[in-house]
Amino acid sequence: MRKILLIAMATIIGVGAIFGNGIKVQAAREEETTPSGIPISELEDKVDEYVDQYIGKGANGAAIVYIHHGEIIFSKGYGYGDVSNKIPVDPDKTVFEYASISKTFTWTAIMQLVEEGKIDLDEDIKTYLPAGFYEKFQKKLSFDQSISVMDLMNHRAGFEDFYFYGDYTKEKYLSDDLGTSLIKAMPKQIYEPNTVTAYSNFS
After folding, report:
1. pTM for the whole thing?
2. DSSP 3-state helix, strand, coil percentages of the chain (rounded to 5)?
3. In whole angstroms, what is the distance from residue 124 CA to residue 24 CA?
4. Among the listed residues 97, 153, 150, 100, the one whose alpha carbon sits nearest the alpha carbon of residue 122
5. 148 DSSP β-pair partners
6. Among the four residues 5, 47, 98, 131, which has the most C-beta atoms within 10 Å?
7. Rg from Cα positions in the chain
8. In the predicted model, is pLDDT for residue 23 greater than 70?
9. Average pLDDT of 126-146?
10. Which long-range contacts (CB under 8 A, 24 or more apart) does 30-34 make?
11. Is residue 159 within 8 Å of 189, Cβ to Cβ?
12. Residue 169 — left, alpha, or beta (φ > 0 → left; ψ -120 to 50 → alpha)?
């Protein structure tokens, strides 16, 4: 049975190292660094050193990609994507379960919209949700206090948690549009917004 651990960290995605596959390292000037200060010229060595702590010791495979100004600077696979058949991870082909990694990309996109002045993190989410959807959503809330975009980001909207994404493929949701399915699957709001941090897939 295949077991893969995937960690997303800003612009570097992955963990791991027994061997590397699909290496792509583009030449970079000495002074260029990652946001954390690692010189691009030393990136592969640093990543190899880091992932060596994990592959075979809690994770079987990983793919790491570093993107700089829209270009792939570093791309490398580590360990196995299929342990039983000894198939190594290939960053161009190996498929990983994305799960909560999607949160990282969602909030990165949100922050890009913030930078463009299109979203205010402190604004009530009703400003950005379709009116028809928000009316149904609001009726199921337990508290009158508004929920901000930041509340959703920080898991402070007050919802109890459950694995909604696992249920979304079930027949009871498949015939509905996304808005209807979200309302059907909406968990209880058990905390007043902005008072308790409680992990929330629904948010």
Report:
1. 0.62
2. 30, 20, 50
3. 44
4. 150
5. 124
6. 47
7. 21
8. no
9. 94
10. 32/68, 34/66, 34/68
11. yes
12. alpha
φ and ψ at residue 48, rounded to 5 degrees: -55, -45
- Helical (H) or strand (E) element with 77: strand 71-82
Length of the chain: 203
Structure tokens at 130: 């379709």
Across the range 55-60, mean pLDDT stands at: 90
What 3-state class would DSSP assign to 140?
coil
**In the 8-state DSSP scheme, what is residue 126?**
G
Is the Cβ–Cβ distance between 132 and 112 less than 8 Å? Answer: no
- By C-alpha distance, which of 160, 170, 171, 172 is closest to 202? 160
187 within 8 A of 161, measured Cβ to Cβ: yes
Share of the chain above pLDDT 70, in %: 78
CB-neighbour burial class of residue 156 (10 A; exposed 0-12, middle 13-18, buried 19+): buried
Alpha-carbon distances, residue 161 vs 72, 93, 181, 197, 202 (angstroms): 36, 33, 16, 11, 7
Dist CA 79 CA 115 (whole Å): 38
- Beta strands 61-68; 71-82: pairing state: antiparallel
